[in-house]
């Protein structure tokens, strides 16, 4: 202590003589003495209560530092195990000591702590040298924090801190903070090996561009692993650590090169434990920075994920689904999960191709989303969520970040809702072969508040009695309003909810598809209370994914399951993580589901509303299907399913002036009138559905629909 005090005394005069600025540096003199005293304090004063409490707290922090449970990137994989997205606050790639090249060890110790392998956590020689240099120069020219101390600081700032206040406190320029870092550094040196400390430091330190740790930095700047870093690459990374913003090699390459070359020179100095030759140093200094452009860091959102134009809708649904299951955004971005999803990349590509071929992505104000769900008794796995639109934020490029595949669209699906009236009838004992009347016009007083309502059939639909099966294929309005009177509106609405329209009927939405939060009533209850007989004609806003899942429920013998995007999740240690999903439930008897399947079996056949599109696509498999079109041709839908796969397509106007849609042969559809058009479920939706589902079924055996 006497020599230290002597040094401190000798610099006081210099500090005072140089003025107020240097008085700040005097704090460093005091700090050095305080550090030594504090490190000796427990031994000096014994095991008093305060010392025990402080030592315990420091021990807990030391244990946390030793385990280094850092925030980690969550990786999202498709069903084949290929990555489709990453979620993170800070991009990190965990790296063990044996994965770090010696060039990186050489570079970082040469520039940040040349006595790293010799000191015990605090470099007193370096501290006094830096103190003298800074006082003589009149400014802070040199630091003295060891790599161990820097590890402590970076861990407290970038890992342990939960908010801005804690991060600020963890890097505040105070004697208390320096004291804590020094004590923790000395403690770590007693419990951790030098290699472990160095690798831990290299895993937590920031390298700029939202990148933390050498594993992530090697990938971000050079597209390689940290074990492949050559001299100039390692030196550049070590250089960036000093000031990640100011030394950004993309925005400030000259400063980054100058600092990199300084690091290379230090690497060749004799005292470096991983010394390089002067010849190697000179060659390395002549090399370009070699930084990737664009950087190799994976995007951290569904909008900018690789292939997001195709799989971004699925990624968005996955994130929303996990949020509802209890995974917060922070947990997803820091938890280091590996999420195996149900997304089938081939099904996704084929569906995307079909959607765009019918409605080009840059089409004015017309969207064409499609959802594909695999039926099952234990789960309904979402295989594809696509649209003609790309997933993104640039509308001028045909992009949208609104998930039009899963959210409730503010348009109906037309005659598709006749499925629910038919299902209610079959549940009550009707057969697909039972006859219903189909007049050209039908007047009822049972809906609304008893007022008269007259309904007509669409153009081309002939009158005359027919079986329920034929009625589902030809879609007469009058026959289904007549049937709705007999099965009951409430029963039809309940059937829609049971089969899968859970979100679509649970809330009210406005013309933009947004929830009307001021409404204290569900859509289902509103339909029942106001006696909306038009429910069977499909005027209710609906979700494309839920329509697909309705067909999956029918194909699953009446077993409803939530449409899940998750196959499995493991945590950072590889342990399985449970997802809090709704349980599957038998919502209708298998007999009802089988009867409905048979009732829907003729839409793709001659006389059915989608026959022309099915024939053009060469469709040959048994299929249950139904088309629908809304009154002013602003939306049209086709839903369909085999025993192996279910799907739904909805073509609709998604921008002003929100007119009806016209179809002219193979040309792209367009908005044409505020009261008319000629879009039908058997045109654009069917022409999208059949080619996509043909590809999805390639290699699958032909299966028959269940008998009734």
UniProtKB/TrEMBL annotation:
<keyword id="KW-0808">Transferase</keyword>
<dbReference type="InterPro" id="IPR023346">
    <property type="entry name" value="Lysozyme-like_dom_sf"/>
</dbReference>
<keyword id="KW-0812">Transmembrane</keyword>
<dbReference type="InterPro" id="IPR012338">
    <property type="entry name" value="Beta-lactam/transpept-like"/>
</dbReference>
<keyword id="KW-0378">Hydrolase</keyword>
<dbReference type="InterPro" id="IPR050396">
    <property type="entry name" value="Glycosyltr_51/Transpeptidase"/>
</dbReference>
<dbReference type="InterPro" id="IPR036950">
    <property type="entry name" value="PBP_transglycosylase"/>
</dbReference>
<feature type="domain" description="Glycosyl transferase family 51">
    <location>
        <begin position="81"/>
        <end position="267"/>
    </location>
</feature>
<protein>
    <submittedName>
        <fullName>Membrane carboxypeptidase (Penicillin-binding protein)</fullName>
    </submittedName>
</protein>
<keyword id="KW-0121">Carboxypeptidase</keyword>
<dbReference type="Pfam" id="PF00912">
    <property type="entry name" value="Transgly"/>
</dbReference>
<dbReference type="Pfam" id="PF00905">
    <property type="entry name" value="Transpeptidase"/>
</dbReference>
<keyword id="KW-0645">Protease</keyword>
<keyword id="KW-0328">Glycosyltransferase</keyword>
<dbReference type="GO" id="GO:0009002">
    <property type="term" value="F:serine-type D-Ala-D-Ala carboxypeptidase activity"/>
</dbReference>
<keyword id="KW-0472">Membrane</keyword>
<keyword id="KW-1133">Transmembrane helix</keyword>
<feature type="domain" description="Penicillin-binding protein transpeptidase">
    <location>
        <begin position="379"/>
        <end position="634"/>
    </location>
</feature>
<dbReference type="GO" id="GO:0008658">
    <property type="term" value="F:penicillin binding"/>
</dbReference>
<feature type="transmembrane region" description="Helical">
    <location>
        <begin position="21"/>
        <end position="51"/>
    </location>
</feature>
<dbReference type="GO" id="GO:0030288">
    <property type="term" value="C:outer membrane-bounded periplasmic space"/>
</dbReference>
<dbReference type="InterPro" id="IPR001264">
    <property type="entry name" value="Glyco_trans_51"/>
</dbReference>
<dbReference type="GO" id="GO:0008955">
    <property type="term" value="F:peptidoglycan glycosyltransferase activity"/>
</dbReference>
<dbReference type="GO" id="GO:0009252">
    <property type="term" value="P:peptidoglycan biosynthetic process"/>
</dbReference>
<dbReference type="InterPro" id="IPR001460">
    <property type="entry name" value="PCN-bd_Tpept"/>
</dbReference>
<keyword id="KW-0511">Multifunctional enzyme</keyword>
<dbReference type="GO" id="GO:0006508">
    <property type="term" value="P:proteolysis"/>
</dbReference>
């Amino acid at each position: 202590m006497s020599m230290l005090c002597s040094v401190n005394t000798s610099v006081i005069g210099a500090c005072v003589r140089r003025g107020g600025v240097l008085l700040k540096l005097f704090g460093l003199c005091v700090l050095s003495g305080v550090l030594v005293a504090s490190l000796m304090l427990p031994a000096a004063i014994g095991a008093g209560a305060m010392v025990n409490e402080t030592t315990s707290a420091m021990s807990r922090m030391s244990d946390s530092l030793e385990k280094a449970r850092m925030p980690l990137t969550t990786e999202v994989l498709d069903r084949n195990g290929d990555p489709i997205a990453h979620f993170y606050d800070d991009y990190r790639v965990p790296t063990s000591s044996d994965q770090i090249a010696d060039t990186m060890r050489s570079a970082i110790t040469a520039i940040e702590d040349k006595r790293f392998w010799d000191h015990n956590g605090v470099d007193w020689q370096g501290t006094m040298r830096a103190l003298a240099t800074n006082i003589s120069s009149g400014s802070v020219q040199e630091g003295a924090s060891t790599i161990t101390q820097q590890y402590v600081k970076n861990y407290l700032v970038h890992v342990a801190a939960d908010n801005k206040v804690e991060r600020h406190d963890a890097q505040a320029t105070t004697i208390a903070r320096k004291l804590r870092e020094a004590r923790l550094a000395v403690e770590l040196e007693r419990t951790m090996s030098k290699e472990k400390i160095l690798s831990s430091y290299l895993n937590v330190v920031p390298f700029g561009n939202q990148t933390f740790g050498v594993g992530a930095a090697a990938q971000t700047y050079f597209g390689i692993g940290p074990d492949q870093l050559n001299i100039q690459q390692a030196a550049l990374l070590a250089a960036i650590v000093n000031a990640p913003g100011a030394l950004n090699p993309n925005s400030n390459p000259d400063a980054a090169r100058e600092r990199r070359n300084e690091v290379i020179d230090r690497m060749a100095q004799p005292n470096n434990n991983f010394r390089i030759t002067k010849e190697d140093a000179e060659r390395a200094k002549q090399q370009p920075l070699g930084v990737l452009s664009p950087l190799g860091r994976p995007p951290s959102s569904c909008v900018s994920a690789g292939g997001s134009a195709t799989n971004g809708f699925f990624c968005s649904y996955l994130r929303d689904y996990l949020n509802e299951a209890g995974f917060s955004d922070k947990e997803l971005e820091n938890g280091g999960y590996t999420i195996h999803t149900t997304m089938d990349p081939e099904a996704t590509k084929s569906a995307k191709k079909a959607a765009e071929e019918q409605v080009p992505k840059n089409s004015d104000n017309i969207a064409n989303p499609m959802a594909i769900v695999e039926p099952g008794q234990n789960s309904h796995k979402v295989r594809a969520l696509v649209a003609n639109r790309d997933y993104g934020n640039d509308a001028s490029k045909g992009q949208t970040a609104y998930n039009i595949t899963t959210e409730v669209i503010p348009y109906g699906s037309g005659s598709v809702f006749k499925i629910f009236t038919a299902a209610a009838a079959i549940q009550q004992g009707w057969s697909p072969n039972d006859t219903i009347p189909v007049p050209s016009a039908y007047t009822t007083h049972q809906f609304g508040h008893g007022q008269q309502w007259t309904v007509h059939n669409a153009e081309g639909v002939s009158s005359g009695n027919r079986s329920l099966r034929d009625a589902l294929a030809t879609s007469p309005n009058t026959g289904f309003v007549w049937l709705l009177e007999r099965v009951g509106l409430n029963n039809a609405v309940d059937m829609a909810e049971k089969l899968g329209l859970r979100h679509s009927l649970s809330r009210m939405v406005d013309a933009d598809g947004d929830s009307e939060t001021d409404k204290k009533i569900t859509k289902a209850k509103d339909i029942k209370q106001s006696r909306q007989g038009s429910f069977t004609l499909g005027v209710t806003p609906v979700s494309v994914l839920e329509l697909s899942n309705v067909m999956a429920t029918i194909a699953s013998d009446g077993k409803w399951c939530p449409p899940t995007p998750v196959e499995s999740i493991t945590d950072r240690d590889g342990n399985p993580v449970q997802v809090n999903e709704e349980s599957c439930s038998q919502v209708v008897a298998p007999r009802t589901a089988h009867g409905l399947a048979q009732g829907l079996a003729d839409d793709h056949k001659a006389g059915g509303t989608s026959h022309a599109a099915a024939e053009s696509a060469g469709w040959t498999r048994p299929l249950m299907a139904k088309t629908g079109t809304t009154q002013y041709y602003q939306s049209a839908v086709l839903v369909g399913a085999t025993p192996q796969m279910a799907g739904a397509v909805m073509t609709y106007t998604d921008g002003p002036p929100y007119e009806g849609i016209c179809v002219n042969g193979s040309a792209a559809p367009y908005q044409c009138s505020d009261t008319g058009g000629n879009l039908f479920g058997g045109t654009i939706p069917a022409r999208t559905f059949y080619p996509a589902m043909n590809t999805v079924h390639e290699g699958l055996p032909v299966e028959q629909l269940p008998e009734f």
